[in-house]
Each structure stands twice: as C-alpha cells, then as structure tokens.
Fold:
Amino acid sequence: MPEVSDRAIGRLGLYRRLLKETQNQGKTHVFSHELAVLAGCTPAQVRRDVMTIGCSGSPAKGYDIDALIRSISRFLDPEDTLGVALVGVGNLGRALLSHFVGWGAQYSIVAAFDNDPDRVNRVIHGCRCYPVQEMPRVIEEKDIRVAIIAVPASEAQSITNQLCRAGVRSLVNFAPVRLWVREGVYVENVDVTMALERVAYFARESISERV
Amino acid sequence: MPEVSDRAIGRLGLYRRLLKETQNQGKTHVFSHELAVLAGCTPAQVRRDVMTIGCSGSPAKGYDIDALIRSISRFLDPEDTLGVALVGVGNLGRALLSHFVGWGAQYSIVAAFDNDPDRVNRVIHGCRCYPVQEMPRVIEEKDIRVAIIAVPASEAQSITNQLCRAGVRSLVNFAPVRLWVREGVYVENVDVTMALERVAYFARESISERV
DNA sequence: TTAACGTTGTGAATCCGTTCACAGAAAGTG
DNA sequence: CACTTTCTGTGAACGGATTCACAACGTTAA
Structure:
C-alpha cells in the first residue's frame, strides 16, 4: 500500500469522475495530456498519480479508461459500503443531502441528526433525521465511520467530541472553525468563508488558478 | 505590497475571525502559540504570516489584537465594498445566501441569478434574484467583480464564460468540474465530492489533520 | 542595576509536492 | 526490417511553503 498525499487522493477521485464522463462519450483510451487538461493539471502529474496506484498504460494507446477506473476504485473505495452521517439539517445540510442522494452504493448518507423538532424523525431527501441525543446509538448500530458537520460554528466542537467518542474516524467540517480531534481522526475543512475571503483578495488584479 | 501565497491569505482571514472571537472574551493581546492552537498550525507559521503583512508584536505581551486585526483588514479587504454575485439559487445557493446574509459591509451578495421561474424576480434571504439572461447587464451596473457558482456541473462552464465576459475577476466554484478561464481570472474550487472521497479514504485508519 | 525568563523576528535548513527530462517501448511507415 | 514518432514510466532536479533555531529584546524580580 503506497503512501499517497491527500492532494493526490483528491485528484484521483477527480480523474475517476472525468474518466467516466469521457467513457460516456464513447472513448476507450486517454493520454495523460488529455486527462491533464480535463483535470486542470500537468501530464506529468497525471502520470505520477497513476503510477502511485500501480496502474500502467501503453505508449501507443494511452491508458485504458476502464482499467484505470477500476484501479482508482480499487485504491480509493473501501471494501464494504461506507456509511456517512450528516449532522445539522439546516439549509446547508439539506443541500448536501440532495447533492449526495443516490450517490451510488459506495458512500451514502445513512443518517442525519438535528435538534430542531420540525426536522427530527422526518425523512428528508430520503434520509431519516434523528435527534442528536440518539447519535451515539445510531452511529454504533449503523457502524458509521464518516461524518459531515453542517452545524453552526458554536456547536461544532461539541458535536465533534460526541462523534469521536462514538467512533467516527474522519470528518468533513463545514463550520468556519478549526476542530480539535484526537490523533488519528482525519478532518477535512471546507471553509466557505475562507474561500470567499481568498477570492475577494485575488479579485483585485491577480493571476492564475488554484485547487 | 508583499507577495503572499493563497494558503497564507486563507490563514490570515482565519486569524482575523479567531482574533475577533478572542477579543470578545476580553483579551487584548495574544502570543503566537495561542493563535496557533486556535488556528491549528504552528507558532512559527503564525509569526511568519504576521511578519509578511508587516505587523509586529512585543516579546513581552505578544501581539496587540486590535492592531493585528486592523493590519489584516488593511491587507485583505478591498478599499471599497466588494459586490458579489451568486449564480444558482438551488438548495446550495440558498444555503450560501443565508450564510452570508448580513456578513458585514465589506463583502455582500448583491445579486442572485437563476433560470427557475419560481425563483426569478423574487427576493430570497434579502437578495434579489434575476434571470440569467440579465446577468451581463446587472453585473456591469453593480460593478460586480466576484461570483459564486452554485449551478449544476453541466452548466458551470457556460455560466463561467458569461461571467468572465461580463468582467468578473474571480470565482468560487461549487460545481464538481474544473473550469476553464482566461489568464488572470482566479478560481477557487470548493469540491464537496472531492472532500467526501478524501475523507472516506482516510477513514480506514489514517492519521493527522489537514486544511 | 543586573540577571533570568519567555517571546518575537528572521536567515537558514528542511521537507514534500511538482515538474523536468530522458530512457524504453509500442505502433505506424516505407 | 529499419526508422520515425509519440507516448509512458521514473530518477533527479526544482521550488516554494513550512519549520528550525537562535539572536535580540522587553519585562519582571531581586
């Protein structure tokens, strides 16, 4: 099992999405430079990434799309289906639910949590919403390892603590705060506020595209 | 004007938010190591970032919070108010609107665009929603430089082209695709799908926290 | 006044992701 | 079959962000 950076993990997922799209257009092979323009990176980067997951192509035809998708999936996807919990069913939470509904069997949001009486015990976008106090029980019962935090900043740390205690291994955090987690828990911060501040800064006259 | 990386820009915004919070707790000074734990980075990182914007502290008391906030604001914020457009008023778009409503005078979403007749010409979370075809006119009239793209992936590129043509300088892109923009336009991709894939990968047994 | 302490400011070292550059290989061509 | 072309695979070079490490300094205490 090679050691791969989180940046590379992200790109591999992107490649897979782009490859599926390309496949739908009837193509069976791609060259690194073709995938590179789709992904917005360099051909060398593509080749390096593909190499690290132990997949190889032919100098004449490029990479076999089907084989590459299978390699990426074998590398990225967990063996069994991965249950995901969503905490916070406000505007953002509902948007995420609708975004991930029918996302395929590999990952799916199998439980939502909130405290608002109007939301609790209802089914929203096909997902049952439980009260937060039942979180430990439900997470254990459904063997949930991943959680998405979409609660206000003020509640995020407390929710995180409960999630970690219940055995969650990694988190996507949408609250604009940095969470404290014990060693071994992976946190991916999606900070919309930061994104806007950055974009505002670079709106002045600036250059170039970034991930 | 020092040249600062986009990573540093993001951190500076984060520092500012954390500093305001700290200030509300009655403190007037912070040490680099205090801010570092709040921001989830190292003290050296904090000192370096603060240095690059030309602000200094005292070895005995640390940094004066008020002065630091003012320095960061002077560095990050545009001189005049910055108008932001939101394109796509679906679930995600509405979540973003409610997130940024009353965000302060510095940045604010001054126009929303959509094609759905149920949304067009209505005021949603205090923001007027225009039909997409009026985008060029409204963007020019309101001198909008920044846009948030919250439309389906299939429409994102076409919207981007129209925005760039209308003079938008930088974008936050929520659609799970890479956008092509002409040199000089800054794109910040917020790829929720990628975030989830990454988190799913690191749920296996992995280590450490990342931005 | 002097010494001890803990922090800032910053040149230098480090680390890690990215890119370069080229050998090796497969297909096409005459 | 030899020769050209164009790509892959990859060790090495590169670059830039991060961290180290320490001199300089303000404060406090004796």
User: Anything to note?
Assistant: Chain A has two domains: 6-74, 82-194.
